[in-house]
Amino acid sequence: MKTIFITGATSGIGKATAELLAKQGNRIIICGRRSEVLETVKAELSAFTEIFSLQFDVRNLEEVENAINSLPEEWKNIDVLINNAGNAHGLDPLSAGKTEDWDSMIDGNVKGLLYVSKMIIPGMKERNSGHIVNISSVAARQTYINGVVYCATKKAVDVISEGMRLELTEFGIKVTNIQPGAVETDFSLVRFKGDSERASTVYAGYEALKAGDIADSIAYCVNAPKHVCISDMTIYPAAQAEPRTIYRK
């Protein structure tokens, strides 16, 4: 049984991963911004295992530090960190981009991942064991028009994951970088700021990945034998050939 810390655990890939790993008997620390949603998810998952919830915004360093420092002693030894929290805002060319959208993506996708990791890595190094799973995107593999900043943040996740592996392997800490393709979650609804009609077109005409598909992949990596580290994994729906090319019916 592992103690697993998951950011962005109240919806989408994070929630699906928390549920699957909870059903496998691990102790789960679920993290998110909305306390009422956290409590609902905690109640659901408590049917399977021990659940602890932490309410904070990964973009706020003080909140991250206070929340993680508040963990009871019996929850402090984190075996697996899943850096899932992130966002995409807007789909505009740089010349028309909103700086608040850029800040949100850079702060959440890059700085938030760094803030949480910085708090948890020292304990893993002391114990000479651990596993960090970072959720990147196929957007890191190929930049696309009107998504430059989002793609840049996910490329940063790739680079950070590689750097973590270089720094942490000697301490027995595994690092896995997951690059999902098109996954049907609230991702596009957030990107298009609640425009459900526009968001639905992203997944029209083909079968996109589901959050559970990515959860399965994460679980495979986390449950691999001790001597095995899945360093990078790219996952596309069958209809997607590369980040910009999806074959629709």
UniProtKB/TrEMBL annotation:
InterPro entries in the record: NAD(P)-bd_dom_sf (IPR036291), Sc_DH/Rdtase_CS (IPR020904), SDR_fam (IPR002347)
Molecular-function annotations in GO: oxidoreductase activity, acting on the CH-OH group of donors, NAD or NADP as acceptor
Cited Pfam families: adh_short (PF00106)
Keyword Plastid in record: no
UniProt entry keywords in alphabetical sequence: Oxidoreductase
Family affiliation: Belongs to the short-chain dehydrogenases/reductases (SDR) family.
PANTHER family reported for this sequence: ALCOHOL DEHYDROGENASE
Designated name of the protein: NADP-dependent 3-hydroxy acid dehydrogenase YdfG
Source organism: Chryseobacterium defluvii
